[in-house]
Design goal:
The structure is a single chain. It is built from 16 helices and no strands. It is mostly helical and about 475 residues long. The chain folds into two domains: about 230 residues, no CATH class; about 200 residues, no CATH class. Helix 2 packs parallel to helix 6 and helix 2 packs antiparallel against helix 10. About 50% of the residues are buried.
C-alpha cells in the first residue's frame, strides 16, 4: 500500500471515529424535536397542528443563535491543533459569556412571532396555542445556548462521545417529562401542549447540567477552563459574532427556505403536501449523517491548520468527501431502489404512498449533492471562512432555492416536480461554488505565512 493510500485511509478512519458518535447525537436531536409532535398526536388535531407550526418556527429562530455560539468549535479546534492551551480556555470562557449575552434574545421571540401570526393569520386556535408553546420554549434558550457552546467545545477538542451520551440522556428525560406533564401522571396536572413545552425546558436543564459536569471533570483542570477568567472585550465580542453569526445564519436560512418550500407545496393539493411531508421526514433523517460528516471535517481541518499543516487540512477535507459520498451514496441507493421500505413507516394511504416513493428518488439525488455541499462548507468553516459560506448560502436561498421552486411549480406549471427543482438547484449550485473555493486553495494562504507563535506554531484565526 502506498504512503498516499495509507494517509488517505488514516484520515478517513479518524474522521469516521469523530463523525460516528455525531451521527447518533444528531439522530437524538431529531427525535427530541419529534417527541412533542408525537405526544400532541394523542391530544388533538389542533394541538398537533400548533406544535408543528411552532416547532418549525422556533427551530429556525433558535438555530440562528445556536449556530453563532457553535462557532467556538472552529476557534477551539485551531487552538487545540496549535497546542495553545490558553487560547482554548480563553475561547471557552468568552463563548460562554457570548451565550449568556445572546440569551435575552430568546425572550423577544414570542413578541416577534405574535406580530408574525398577525400578518400570516393562521387559524385562531392554532395561532394562540403555537404562541403559548413558543413563549414557554423561550425559557430554554439560555440553557440551550450554553449547552451548544460546551458541546461545540468538546467537538473542537475531538470528543464526540460525550455529546452523544448527553443527547440521548436528554431525549430520555424529555420523553418521561412529556408523558408526566402532557397527560398529568403521578399527581401532576394535565397540561397537554404546555406540558410538552415545559418537558423540553426540563430536558434542556438536565442537558446543561450534564455538559457542565463532563466538561469541567474532563477538561476543567487539564486545560484551565476556569483559570484566570476574564470577560471578553467589545472588540472580541464583535469578532466572535463576525465568525459565528454567518454559521448560524446559514443553518437558519436552510431551515427557513424549506419552510417556505413546504408552503408552496401546500398550494398544490393535499396528496402532494402529504407525500412531500413523508419524503421530507426521510430527507431530515438522511441529513443527520451528512451534517455529522460536515462537523467532523470542520473540526479536523481546523485542528490541522492550528498544527500548521495545510496539506493535512486539505487531506481531511478530501477524506470528508470520500466518506460522505460513500455513506450517503449507499443510503441514496436504498432510497432509490427500495423506497417502499421507508415510506410504509409513515403512511398507509395508497395514493400518498405511491407519490411518496417517486419523490423519495428525488430526495436520493438531493442527498448526494447535499453531502458534497456540506463537506466543502465544513472544510471552509474549519479554516474560518464562515462569512463566505454564510452569505453565499443566504444569497443562494433567496435568489435560487425559493424563486426556482416557485417558478417551477406555478409559473412554468410543473407542479410538484417543478417545486422540487428548487432544493436540487440550490444544493448543486452551492456544491459547485464551495467546491471551487476549496479546490482554489485561497483558504490556505493565511495559514502558510508563519507568524509569532501563540502557544503553538502558526497564526490562529482571531475573533
Amino acid at each position: 500500500m502506498s504512503t498516499k493510500e495509507s494517509s488517505n485511509g488514516a484520515c478517513s478512519r479518524k474522521l469516521l471515529r469523530l463523525a460516528g458518535p455525531l451521527i447518533l447525537s444528531n439522530l437524538a436531536y431529531t427525535l427530541l424535536g419529534a417527541l412533542d409532535t408525537i405526544f400532541m398526536g394523542r391530544v388533538g388535531a389542533t394541538e398537533l397542528g400548533a406544535v408543528g407550526v411552532a416547532s418549525a418556527l422556533f427551530l429556525a429562530a433558535s438555530t440562528l443563535l445556536r449556530g453563532t455560539v457553535g462557532s467556538v468549535m472552529v476557534v477551539v479546534s485551531q487552538a487545540f491543533g496549535a497546542e495553545d492551551q490558553k487560547g482554548i480556555s480563553r475561547a471557552f470562557q468568552h463563548y460562554m459569556v457570548l451565550a449568556m449575552l445572546l440569551a435575552p434574545l430568546g425572550f423577544i421571540m414570542p413578541l416577534f412571532f405574535k406580530v408574525f401570526f398577525r400578518i400570516t393569520k393562521p387559524q385562531a386556535d392554532v395561532g394562540l396555542l403555537a404562541l403559548e408553546y413558543i413563549s414557554i420554549r423561550a425559557w430554554e434558550i439560555p440553557l440551550s445556548l450554553m449547552s451548544k457552546t460546551m458541546g461545540s467545545f468538546l467537538l473542537g477538542v475531538g470528543n464526540s462521545r460525550v455529546p452523544m451520551l448527553v443527547s440521548w440522556a436528554t431525549v430520555l428525560v424529555n420523553m418521561v417529562a412529556n408523558y408526566v406533564l402532557v397527560f398529568g401522571k403521578f399527581g401532576f396536572p394535565r397540561m397537554e401542549l404546555a406540558g410538552a413545552a415545559w418537558g423540553t425546558v426540563i430536558s434542556q436543564t438536565v442537558q446543561l447540567t450534564l455538559y457542565l459536569f463532563f466538561v469541567l471533570k474532563l477538561y476543567g483542570a487539564e486545560l484551565g477552563l476556569l483559570k484566570d477568567f476574564r470577560l471578553p472585550t467589545w472588540g472580541q465580542i464583535r469578532g466572535m459574532l463576525r465568525l459565528g453569526f454567518p454559521m448560524g445564519l446559514a443553518d437558519s436560512v436552510d431551515l427557513s427556505a424549506f419552510g417556505v418550500f413546504m408552503t408552496f407545496l401546500a398550494r398544490l393539493g393535499t396528496i402532494e403536501l402529504a407525500a412531500s411531508q413523508v419524503a421530507n421526514q426521510l430527507n431530515d433523517i438522511a441529513f443527520m449523517p451528512s451534517f455529522a460528516i460536515g462537523m467532523a471535517t470542520s473540526s479536523l481541518v481546523g485542528r490541522s491548520l492550528g498544527e500548521g499543516s495545510t496539506d493535512r487540512a486539505e487531506a481531511y477535507g478530501k477524506a470528508g468527501l470520500r466518506v460522505g459520498i460513500v455513506l450517503m451514496g449507499t443510503l441514496a441507493a436504498c432510497y432509490w431502489l427500495f423506497p417502499q421500505v421507508f415510506v410504509v413507516l409513515f403512511t398507509s394511504d395508497p395514493e400518498v404512498s405511491q407519490l411518496s416513493k417517486r419523490i423519495l428518488r428525488v430526495v436520493a439525488v438531493y442527498q448526494v449533492l447535499d453531502v458534497i455541499r456540506i463537506t466543502f462548507c465544513g472544510s471552509l468553516n474549519g479554516a474560518g471562512e464562515t462569512r463566505f459560506t454564510g452569505l453565499t448560502t443566504l444569497a443562494a436561498a433567496c435568489l435560487v432555492f425559493i424563486p426556482v421552486s416557485y417558478i417551477g411549480a406555478f409559473t412554468l406549471g410543473f407542479g410538484l416536480w417543478g417545486a422540487w427543482a428548487g432544493p436540487l438547484t440550490h444544493a448543486a449550485l452551492l456544491m459547485v461554488v464551495f467546491g471551487a473555493r476549496f479546490r482554489g486553495g485561497a483558504w490556505k494562504k493565511p495559514w502558510q505565512t508563519v507568524s509569532l507563535p501563540v502557544g503553538g506554531k502558526y497564526r490562529l484565526s482571531k475573533y
